[in-house]
What does this fold into?
Amino acid sequence: MVFFVILVAAYLIGGIPSGVILTRIAGAADIRTQGSGNVGATNVYRVAGKRLGVLTLVLDMLKGAVPLVLLNYLMESGALQPAFSEVRVTSAAALLLFLGHCYPVYLCFKGGKGVATALGIFLVLAPVALIPPLLIFIAVLWYWRYVSLASVCAAFSIPFAVLGFGYPWSLVGVTVLIAAWVIYRHRENIQRLRSGTENRFNF
It folds into this structure.
């Protein structure tokens, strides 16, 4: 029962639409009808400006990181005692946080692509393994100026990094699922990259 409650809570927290909330508070246009229609930080950046875009990125990261920090604390202190090992519980919660962002019940299951939330998740669960994908992301974005291409390349690399740094197999499995889902969520971007119609990121 405790495990089920954790998963439901993770999904609901992950689904909080930071970009939609921020742009509504700021009185900007509904980002779901502007730009790419995505609720993530990149579209907020393009539609509502740099400040709201960066703030959306930070909040989406935090909703991936903070619940896992709190969950680890509660399990280590004995306040929560799920039937499974801590690493399995946190891995499962991480997956539900990610899916909540991608398919939020609050927006009829039409959410973001999960990159920022995944970043927050791995900052907590596999911070060392996050270094190579981050360097790849920065290098690809700097050279080609495609956020989508940088995200796909980083997502492709992170399972190898998690495996290479010796993290538990349950975390490796969840990492593979998250990475594959990030790439899948970018399928339209990949088509535009192939046709040469993808928007470049303006620094």
